Input
Amino acid sequence: MNLRKLFRSEAASGYLLLSPTAIFSIVVMAAPLIAVVLFSFMTAGYLKIIWTPTLANYVTLLDQPIYVTLMMRSLIVAAVATAATVFSALPIAYFISFFVPPERKSLWLFLITIPFWTSYLIRVFLWKVILGYNGVINSAFLGLGIIHEPMTFLLYNANAVVITLAHAYAPFAILPIFVSLEKIDRSLLEAGQDLGESRFMTFIRVTLPLAVPGVVASVLIVFIPTVGDYVTPTLVGGNNGQMVANLIENSYFKLGNYPLGSAISVSAMGIVTVICLIFLFLNRRFLRSRS
Output
């Protein structure tokens, strides 16, 4: 009798409606992830996978300096690109929220999304044209007489990767910060200025702490995908700008070592997860100290 009531309850009906989507999500998202984790504990044989559980792949990652170096480079490049993106997005979001008339904010947000109209690959190629040996920057500086020969340090290094990633992910950082700024009660800012605070100190003590949720969202939205970005390091990074995603691709498709590539993927996901959890924990402690 109780089971009959349970199956006829609203909760059961809700789960029944949700089940097709949940099953689809598990099959599409969880199953490949589980497969990658399982592959990471296997051994690559000659044209086959040896299905004997082992930790040899993870030991190899710790023993070979190239894996640790590329992982550290990926984290540093992603962190710098995230910082550059968020720091450049904050003034833009602040300007749109506080200085643009309400009837024109939609237009400004529309303009911010214009880069999404073109392919990500095309945007990376454009930066390759801009930063290239005969690119826009070198041509302009040569024409103005600032330099006498093209600069070679603009392209095919980690700096080019950071610049390209910061531009590509800028809208992802601007929009969450803008939403947080829009939720701030303007009377709080007026009260701060009435108490003698300057506009800058009001921003530091009132606006910025209240915008922290948007900043945190922007950091996570930008940092997580940039760590595993593959296209940008391939096109503008060169040998000095390669990241962990390029190493994974090399293990899978060039070496045919699926277990090692899976181990690199799992390790990268684990490291990024730990870093994000630490960041969220520190952010929670900061918010508690401010309250």
The mean pLDDT is 87. The chain is about 75% helix and 0% strand. The beta strands are 43-45, 48-50.
